Amino acid sequence: MDSIGTEKIVHGQRWGEFHNGYFSDRTIASPLVGAALGVLAKSPVDVVVDLGGGTGFLLSQLATNGLGATTKLVNVDCSDAQLALEDSVGIIRVHSSIGEFRRRDVATGDQRLFLIMRSVLHYLGEDGLRPLLRHLRDQVSEGESFVHQSASFENEEDAACLNALYRHMRTRKWYPTVNNLKNCLLKSGWRVTDSIEAPSLLLTSEDLGLRYALDTGDIARIREMMAGEFGQESRVFRLTPSGFQADLHYRIFTCVATSP
After folding, report:
1. Which 8-state DSSP code applies to residue 96?
2. Could you tell me the CA-to-CA distances from 248 to 89, 202, 242 in Å, in that order?
3. Is there a contact between 147 and 255 (Cβ–Cβ < 8 Å)?
4. Is residue 13 within 8 Å of residue 80, measured between CB atoms?
5. Residues 6+ apart with CB under 8 A from 19
6. Contact in structure between 42 and 145 (CB atoms under 8 Å)
7. CA 232 – CA 137 distance, rounded (Å)
8. 211 or 148, greater pLDDT
9. Pairing mode, strands 145-151 and 47-51
10. Is the pLDDT of residue 109 over 60?
């Protein structure tokens, strides 16, 4: 996940307000929290792990919205600055990349495990998506659940637009279509039992410039290239007087581990 190093400039205290506070907004998070709690109400577990959990926001929302007090909460993240902001009582911090995550590090053999994740899979790039999904499947037992909110698009054109934008920003992040992601999940040992829309994230060239170390020349170059490829306005991208905006679409996928 090569973008992490560059993006650390927005980790820590700045993260809660970045992207208009998207990742610290309780209302925006409520569909994902609700989907997770719905699964957990039917199938209680011993350990909930937030993969790429950052500041622990999602786990704190689960805890304050009805998750049992005896459930062990684990925040796995590779950013020291994000983990340092974790101040919720009872949440265990694990400094690790998702690719290095192992079940044995958070649960004993007989404990039941539940995985949650938000806005992480695109960091793996097109080639890394299925190996990561397979790795996560290998860490759980058949029948255990994985609920994640992942960036994905209903049609190929919108996915191609955002993927072009991120290539021009010199990052290997990659966004699939919804059907593509469902297919990758299935082939990686995950059965999708539900899929619902989540709030979109408004991306501005100002925020992206800070996040990916883009100067005014970079913004002008990207603006020109995107306009040439996709026009001044599309369903998910549009020019502004001095920059651009884009809409990152999300869906929430409820998945169950199938037999090996």
Report:
1. -
2. 32, 6, 20
3. yes
4. no
5. 201, 202, 203, 207
6. no
7. 41
8. 148
9. unpaired
10. yes
Task: For 48-95, write each residue's pLDDT tens digit.
Answer: 999 998 888 999 999 999 898 899 999 998 776 666 665 566 888 888
pTM higher than 0.70 for the full model?
yes
> Measured between alpha carbons, how far is 34 from 173 in angstroms, rounded to an integer?
27
CB 76 within 8 A of CB 98: yes
| DSSP reduced 3-state for 231 | coil
174 has a pLDDT exceeding 90: yes
- Beta strands at 244-257 and 190-204: parallel, antiparallel or unpaired: antiparallel
DSSP 46: S
Asked whether residue 129 carries a pLDDT value surpassing 90, the answer given is yes
Q: DSSP of 194-215, one letter per residue?
A: EEEEEEEEEEEHHHHHHHTT--
Tokens of 130: 């299925």
Percent of residues in the chain assigned helix, strand, coil, to nearest 5: 45, 25, 30
- Nearest-CA neighbor of 50 among 93, 18, 13? 93
